[in-house]
Structure formats: structure tokens, C-alpha cells
Amino acid sequence: MTKDSARKEQVRVRMERTGEKYTQAARALEARPRLMLPLPEPVAGPGACPECAGTGVGEWAAVFAEPDASAELVCPVFCGSCHGCGRRPHLGCRPLDHDDALLWAEDEGFETEPVQQCPSCWGRRWNSCQSFDADGVYYLRVPCGCSAGLLVAAP
Ligand SMILES: [Zn+2]
Ligand SMILES: [Zn+2]
Ligand SMILES: [Zn+2]
Prior knowledge:
Elements: H1 3-18, H2 22-30, E1 34-36, E2 57-64, E3 72-78, H3 101-108, E4 126-133, E5 136-143, E6 152-153
Parallel strand pairs: 1-3
Antiparallel strand pairs: 1-6, 2-3, 4-5
Helix pairs in contact: 1-2
Bound molecules: zinc ion (3 copies).
The site of one zinc ion has 7 residues, from loops.
């Protein structure tokens, strides 16, 4: 599905839910703010991942929203080299800092941590959402529902 037809589909779904006319629904969707969950401070120094300069995420982000949601969510793609922690080698990071925590912990020989706090995100405020395109699998940093009060305007 192209970006344009995805947008039209969103307008159509919103019209059905709200009873708005096409232009009204399209305008309401366009006027929505774009929000994101702030990233942690990048890792600095010699332990920083060279691919992402310690940020843990790549250069592009996916944008999501339910047709009747009041805002769009901007979700960065995790760095495919460090898998989200910003460290290479993995010194001082935890399994939960990575895009696929359980799989990653096994591969790197970490003990997995007990599940605590928010049962959906384990207290880290985001969930990893697997997606793919022609280049392969990637993971998105999607804000957890428990982080609603922490979202900021996306740049
Ligand atoms: Zn990286
Ligand atoms: Zn790591
Ligand atoms: Zn949560």
C-alpha cells in the first residue's frame, strides 16, 4: 500500500467512525500533532556504537496513528548494529535495553530479568514492534500506553 492510499484509507475509516465529511475528516487527520517518546541521552565515549553514535536508533522513523486518535506517534527504528542500547561492545547494558530483549539476552549469554512494573513494557516505557521491508526485518521503538504523559512534540 502506498503512503497516499494509506492516508485515504485512514480518512475513510475516520469518516465511518465520526460521521464527518471527507474534507472535514482529512483536515482533522492532517492537523494532528506528531508525538514521540524522548530518547535517552546517547552513549558517549569509546563504548558508543559507531553505527548510531550511541543513540541506539537509526535515521528514519515510522509514523502511526489510529484513524480517530488525536495525535500521530513517531516511532524510531532501532539501530541494527547495537540493537537499541547504543553500546558496542555491550558493556553496562541490560537485555531490556535491546530491540528483542529475550532473544538478544540468549544470544549474548545474559540472564533475563524478572518482569516488573508495567506488565506490557516491563517499566522501560516502550515496546519493540517487529516490522520488515525489502531490506529485511527491523524493530520500532513504540511508546507503551503507560508513557502517555511523557510524550513530546516530534522534531
Ligand atoms: Zn547502534
Ligand atoms: Zn547492548
Ligand atoms: Zn508500559
